Amino acid sequence: MSGTRALLEVQDLQIDIVSAKHRHNVVENVSFTIDHGETFGLVGESGCGKSITALAMIGLLRSPLVISSGSIRFRDRELRGLPERELRKLRGNRIAMIFQEPMTALNPVSPVGRQIAEMFVLHQGATWHEAERKAVEALASVQVPAPEQRVKSYPHEMSGGMRQRIMIAIALACKPDLLIADEPTTALDVTVQAEILKLMKELCSARGTAVLMISHDLGVIAKMCRNVGIMYAGHLVEQRPVEAIFRSPSHPYTNGLLNSLPRLGSRGIHGRKRLQEITGVVPSISAFPAGCRFQPRCERASALCATTQPDQADLGDEGYVRCFHHG
Amino acid sequence: MSGAFTMDNRAGPLLRVENLSVHFPVRTGLLGRSRRLVRALNNVDLTLEKGECLSVVGESGCGKSTLAFSIVGLQTPTSGSIHFEGRAITGKAQPSRIERARMAQIVFQDPYASLNPRQTVLTSLAAPLRLQGIVNNGEVEGRVMEMMRLVGLSPDKAKCFPHEFSGGQRQRIGIARALILSPKVVVLDEPVSALDVSIRAQIINLLLDLKERLELSYIMISHDLSVVEHMSNRVAVMYFGQVVEEGRWDRIFGNPAHPYTRRLIAAIPDPFAAFTTPSLIDEAGAQGPPHGFDYHPREFGTHDIYSDPPASQLVSIGDDHRVRLVPAAA
Question: Is residue B116 part of a domain?
């Protein structure tokens, strides 16, 4: 988009589920770019393909999921088709990832200090002795109290928020260029969520780490991101700067989603209003409509929508929408 | 829902929870030899008026689910009592489960986990009716069909299994099953948390419609404060097994007093606040406690669940607004 080369450029990504008999499309025509140090949000409901898109970025898709077409360029290098050996050098080192449930992502039988130290040994060739010293620093940087003692703790001895801090320490250990955060705070209480988001924001902006933030929670996205992509049934239906999404949502799905949320404070001012519903349900992967995938639930839908997929329409604010009847 | 039911003001609230405590013994230490008590609920007092939605909010582990289970009879209280229309439903004189099932029912968070996957909707919904002695097949089926229509499900899906429904439809089945015995109180345990964002509005609207139509009273357990604000008449904030603030919804959201309540409200990532309205509440800036009192003295997050909470009381600080205070240190 801008003159300088973006950190991550995803072009026309298509991911399918392939079996002997069937081929179902999961993600189609997904394009976005993330600049150095930028936080980009990917929002959508369960099954919309946002997590699969993230896994594709680091070459973690496994059969039956395959990337059928498109390109993923990271620092001007094509990741698609890169041999596993090369990908391994990138994963954890240049591109790191944190997941929703830290307990399943951490090794339950290894002290957390060792799990952090591993990063320095694997990617920076440090000795274990040196690495364990760095692990204490890493723990201190994610504001874990008494890091010298905590390095010896096991994951089950920690609270959910602490575990997610450990995950962040591991992910940011090698100062990656890109951090992929897949629902990093969904399993946490709101007050802990607020602390973790603040920590992520501070650490990433201090180190210039770009973030691909995946969430179903528009509140989290609004707090963290500069640009947002809204996904619906495998399509990126709208991509805008975050203020634009909330001020003037363009796609009927985005609009419906925002109107369906109870707004904090609005009842005090306007009284209780009935929430606007989006009728119907998300189509299943085996039965995506031929045209626009939101068309069966859309109130603006016309005959054209049922047969033809809308192209990107530029919106003038560096954003685009995929809808014939946007606005 | 018969016309015979008349409101008797002297009878007091529909549901009254008095001094309710639930303690769980746990084994700790080497080989589990020492026993300690986890104090899940400590002297909880709550009332639910007819037609109200009372929301109980708080973080995981604060005891809100234990409270919900106590009300529907899934958990026996250690001490204290629960009264339904003035009648004790805990302790020696407690009603049978069959009777109790007509008083209060519960809607669970995850409808898929709470429905039997091998039973059709019809079988699931008919079971409570049959247990209540309604055995005429025609009548049972008629009531099931009526209930399905009421919650927005097509009655010709009665012979389908839970897996054939979407998440939102499954929650409708969960609601139908809770309502089939026409209970007066419905406990909603995180009713929309497991649902997709675009489905939540449908279920929230349905719950509010049913409340009006069937004159239900809700106790809603939730951590989503924007949903709580939208649905509730009254709100109780729980913190480590105690109610720390309680009152009318607009008091709690408009003028939260307890530092924990303020912290909870300030922590909500509100997508609209960031760009349209400035955040209504910040963590600091609470009014000081009334003279001679102090807020909960313990640091957040370090409260020990094994020890007795400090002596404290709920003090009225305004019209229908109470906050838990401890005597100020001299």
Answer: no
Q: Which chain A residue shows the shortest CA-CA distance from B233? A: A272
* Predicted pLDDT at B27: 78
Mean pLDDT, chain A, rounded, equals: 92
Domain span including residue B299 = 11-103+183-327
Scanning every residue of chain A, which has its alpha carbon at the shortest distance from the alpha carbon of B269?
A219
The half-sphere exposure of A53 on its side-chain side, counting CA atoms within 13 A, is: 38
- Nearest Cα neighbor of A98 from A171, A166, A200 is A171
Residue A17's pLDDT band (cuts 50, 70, 90): very high
For residue range A122-151, list pLDDT tens digits in order.
999 999 999 999 999 999 999 999 999 999
Q: Cβ contact (<8 Å) for A216 and B196?
A: yes
Contacts of B209 by beta carbon, 8 Å cutoff, 6+ apart: none
With respect to residue B122, please indicate whether it lies within any of the assigned structural domains.
no
Residue carrying structure tokens 């250690």: B78
Which value does ipTM take for this structure? 0.84
Q: Which residue of A has its CA nearest to B202?
A: A277
Question: Does residue B43 sit within a domain?
Answer: yes
Report chain A's C-alpha Rg in angstroms: 21
B271 vs A261: CB contact, 8 Å cut-off? yes
Neighbour-count burial for A249-278, b at 16+ CB within 10 Å, e otherwise? bbbbbbbbbbebbbbbbbbeeeeeeebebb
Q: How far apart are CA B15 and CA B8, in angstroms?
A: 13
HSE on the CB side for B36, CA within 13 Å?
11
- In chain A, residues with a C-beta closer than 8 Å to the C-beta of B227 are 262
Our count of domains for chain B comes to 1
Residue ranges of domains in chain A: 244-327
Look up the CATH number of the domain holding residue B33: 3.40.50.300
Overall residue count recorded for chain B in this entry? 330
Residues on chain B touching A218 (C-beta within 8 angstroms): 197, 271
Closest-CA residue to B220 (of B240, B245, B192, B197): B192
Question: A262 CB near a chain B CB, below 8 Å?
Answer: yes
Interchain CB distance below 8 Å, A278 and B201: yes
